[in-house]
Amino acid sequence: MKVVRASSWASFRWDDVLRAIRMSEAVRVLSRAKFGLLGAPSDWLVASPPTLGPLERLGDEFAFDCTDYYRAEMGPNLHKRLLLGRRLVERQLLPAIKLATNDIERQLAAESGRRRVNLDPGLLSPENLVLASTKPRGHRVYLGRGIWAEVTMAFQHGRFEMFAWTYPDYRSAELVNSLQRARGRLLQTLRRGDYRLLREVPCSRA
Fold first, then answer.
1. If you write DSSP's letter for every residue of 24-76 in order, what string do you get?
2. Spatial distance between the Cα atoms of 203 and 141, rounded to a whole number of angstroms
3. Which residues on neighbouring strands pair with residue 27, listed in sequence order?
4. Contact between 45 and 118 (Cβ < 8 Å)
5. What SS3 class is residue 163?
6. Which of 197, 151, 154 is nearest to 176 (CA)?
7. 141 and 112 in contact (C-beta within 8 Å)?
8. Cα(62)–Cα(39) distance, rounded to whole angstroms?
9. Comparing C-alpha atoms, which of 108, 99, 159 is closest to residue 129?
């Protein structure tokens, strides 16, 4: 245990502690958007859905060919793009964000009910990337409202490190480099302190 000597209190400031707490609450929304040839055009994906706030492209669009899991529902030749929220959000909004993206998927679905866009939201913070899911697994933590959280990557020793359950498409060097750049920009924003937190995300489910 580290002991704080009396002489150290002269430079101790509660403002610094409170600022660190505020910084720990602020993160960026990251969404993995998958869409097919018959899906919504990629331009829609940066059309700033009001529930999520302004979004921006993170890296280039690329083929999603690491699994056939979505083929039956969405067809072949799927593509993927990462989207980054421009506004910082509070971490406890992750369940509401996931429910909001589920609403968007339903709004864009075909008349048959099949999804044309799949949105996997998460939170990018200085220390990790956390994704939301409606599926329970041994490595996921229940957040409430039918939503689980998964630490997909952890930032350690100057880089993002993977786990056994990290999705294959998140292991590509291009994607990791994009996340590194986004993390750097997030750190700059947190240090400047010139941001307003998004504190509410409306969705259809209570």
1. HHEEEEEEEEEE-TTS--GGGGGS--TTT--EEEEEEEEE--S--TTHHHH-S
2. 21
3. 89
4. no
5. coil
6. 154
7. no
8. 15
9. 159
CB atoms within 10 A of CB 47: 11
3-state secondary structure of 176: helix
Closest by alpha carbon to 163, among 134, 144, 140, 186?
140
pTM of the model: 0.80
Q: Which uninterrupted H or E stretch holds 118? A: strand 117-124
In whole angstroms, give the CA distance from residue 198 to residue 90.
7
Tokens 């331009």 belong to residue: 43
Q: Cα(119)–Cα(52) distance, rounded to whole angstroms?
A: 12
Residue ranges of alpha helices (H) inside the chain are 14-25, 71-74, 94-107, 173-192
| pLDDT tens track for 134-165 | 999 999 999 999 999 999 999 999 999 999 99
Write the pLDDT tens digit of every residue in 53-94.
777 888 777 777 777 777 888 888 888 888 888 888 888 889
Contact partners, residue 160, CB within 8 Å, separation at least 6: 129, 153, 154, 176, 179, 180
Going by C-alpha positions, the residue among 151, 140, 155 that lies closest to residue 187 is 155
Read off the amino acid at residue 175: L
Q: Measured between alpha carbons, how far is 23 from 36 in angstroms, rounded to an integer? A: 37
Residue indicated by tokens 């996921």:
140
